[in-house]
Write a structure and sequence with these properties.
Blueprint: H1 6-23, H2 26-48, H3 54-60, H4 66-81, H5 90-139, H6 143-157, E1 173-179, E2 191-196, E3 202-203, E4 208-211, E5 217-219, E6 225-226, E7 231-236, E8 249-251, E9 258-265, E10 271-280, E11 292-294, E12 300-302, E13 345-350, E14 358-363, E15 369-370, E16 375-379, E17 387-390, H7 392-395, E18 399-400, E19 404-409, E20 418-419, E21 430-434, E22 440-445, E23 465-468, E24 470-471, E25 476-477, H8 483-486, E26 487-490
Parallel strand pairs: 7-8, 19-20
Antiparallel strand pairs: 1-2, 1-11, 2-7, 3-6, 4-5, 4-9, 9-10, 11-12, 13-14, 13-23, 14-19, 15-18, 16-17, 16-21, 21-22, 23-26, 24-25
Helix pairs in contact: 1-2, 1-5
């Protein structure tokens, strides 16, 4: 709505009247005034959007009545005929007209003020109505929030089962075959097979498979079921883990090569089956990638057949024959001698200050070792799973020379081998060093760490390092698989031989000192 000052409008009308009275004769001016006043009235109606009250038309209409015009014309003719009649001067006539106009302007001003007040009130009411509508909209819950709340509720409805002290029932469905080591195509192509031993079809709705650290959390849905005496195949990541055989379900998460447990719970969280790999799996061959199979007595043995599409196992099929010392048939294929991974030690760690943080490795062997595919993991005191600290990508193409150190640093230190700006180490941590076959090569835990070799080492102080003890006579680092015994607080020596802590000499207390004279 446009805003016009009533004073401005009235002033414009006043100027218009004065100018017109000077230019036109009285009759002409009255005729024009009639049209102007009507136009002003119409303009006010359009401007303020309100019909003029009928009573106010009486203010304007009498000014332009035809009878008044005719009487004025007759009176003027009489004056002109009577030469003795003194005609008013033009100035007096103008003054008189101004007085008349002023009276009419006063009336118009009153009407304008009333209309303006009414308009302002209507605008205020309109604004209040808009504000009320806005408040109503703000009070309405957003649909997206409702949808998010529903998702949160659904997540909360899924409660992971807990083992407690349950013994497995093994009367409906069991773990029948596990390829915990992957396949000859890729070690990450893990898979597991379930078997229905109940004689009845079973719906898996509400069943769960969990591992020790809950890195694997398989929640079965209503569409999942297993027929009587049949198999159910679960493949990791995608359906390519087992070529040419359709997976019944895809899952995520990997099985550890040691210190692992698998649980199978039914819809009532009753433990149907479990597998303990504490510390090692009961069967299976990691070097050859042979799966772990089960016999009718629930005992485990290693797959004895030939490879099929890179799979040394029997996914979704009856297990291979089990060979025993008293049974017939050919003996299982001989395995090549197991080659232990080269021993690379974690020799020194500094966690604080931030700009001095590093991890140092040491190769005690006489051979160069290619670190491609190796990696370091970390676990916090409250963590439930291992997280990547130094990925295999960082070790790509890296080698460690015999009897030499290898330095991983957060900042640029002289002779560093890997620069890792996000190297994260804090108190009460444990780090795990694994080779390209995911075998644990070394492990160090300190403070209140969850994991360690035998016992944890101390938390290193700021400006100090946690260093492996150097044995001078043997000219090698101590490695008794006990972090508490093998490590001590030292002065940092990145990429150099560690300097063992030397306690300060005890103060000498002399006896029989004569008293002062």
């Amino acid at each position: 709505m446009s805003k016009f000052s009533p004073t401005l409008i009235i002033g414009a009308i006043l100027v218009l009247f004065i100018t017109g009275s000077l230019i036109f004769s009285k009759n002409q001016w009255l005729e024009k005034t009639s049209g102007i006043l009507v136009s002003v009235r119409d303009a006010f109606q359009n401007l303020f959007g309100v019909n003029y009250p009928p009573v106010k038309e009486e203010v304007i209409v009498p000014l332009i009545k035809k009878e008044d015009l005719e009487e004025e014309i007759i009176e003027k003719e009489k004056i002109e005929e009577n030469s003795d009649f003194e005609q008013p001067s033009p100035l007096d006539e103008i003054v008189e007209k101004i007085d008349e106009i002023s009276e009419k302007v006063d009336l118009l001003t009153q009407e304008v003020e009333k209309l303006a007040g009414k308009e302002i009130k209507e605008e205020e009411n309109e604004e209040e109505t808009k504000e009320e509508k806005i408040e109503e909209i703000e009070d309405e819950p957003e649909e997206s929030e409702d949808e998010e709340s529903k998702e949160e509720i659904l997540e909360k409805e899924i409660i992971l089962c807990q083992n407690g002290q349950q013994n497995p029932i093994r009367d409906k469905v069991i773990f029948n075959e596990i390829s915990w080591m992957g396949t000859t195509i890729d070690w990450r192509n893990e898979w597991m097979e379930l078997k229905n031993i109940s004689g009845n079809d079973i719906s898996f709705k509400g069943w769960q498979i969990l591992d020790k650290e809950q890195e694997i959390k398989i929640i079965f849905e209503e569409k999942d079921n297993i027929l009587a005496n049949q198999f159910f195949l679960l493949e990791r990541t995608n359906d390519d883990s087992v070529p040419n055989i359709l997976a019944d379900k895809i899952y995520s998460g990997n099985l550890n090569d040691e210190d692992e447990i698998l649980y199978l719970f039914d819809e009532n969280c009753q433990l149907q089956d479990e597998i303990l790999a504490l510390p090692n799996w009961p069967a299976g061959n990691k070097e050859e990638r042979r799966s772990m199979e089960r016999d009718s007595d629930f005992n485990w043995y290693t797959f004895s057949g030939m490879a099929n599409n890179g799979i040394l196992g029997t996914p979704k099929a009856e297990n291979s024959p089990k060979f025993t010392s008293t049974g017939g048939g050919a003996p299982p294929p001989a395995s090549e001698p197991t080659t232990l991974p080269p021993k690379i030690l974690i020799s020194e760690i500094q966690i604080s200050p931030l700009e001095k943080r590093f991890i140092e490795l040491y190769n005690p062997s006489e051979n160069e070792v290619d670190l491609t595919g190796w990696y370091i993991q970390r676990k916090t005191p409250t963590g439930t799973s291992w997280i990547s600290l130094v990925s295999s990508t960082n070790f790509e193409g890296k080698k460690i020379m015999p009897k030499s150190h290898f330095l991983i640093s957060r900042v640029s230190i002289e002779n560093f081998d890997i620069l890792l700006e996000n190297l994260t180490l804090t108190e009460d941590n444990v780090i795990l060093f694994k080779d390209s076959d995911r075998e644990v090569v070394d492990k160090v835990g300190w403070g209140q760490a969850q994991d360690f070799e035998t016992a944890p080492a101390e938390n290193p102080l700021s400006g100090k390092s946690l260093g492996r003890k150097w044995l001078e006579e043997e000219e090698e680092y101590q490695d008794s698989d006990n972090n508490q015994e093998d490590f001590e607080i030292q002065n940092p020596t990145p990429k150099e031989k560690n300097q063992n802590f030397v306690p300060p000499p005890s103060p000498v207390v002399e006896d029989n000192i004569p008293p002062p004279s």
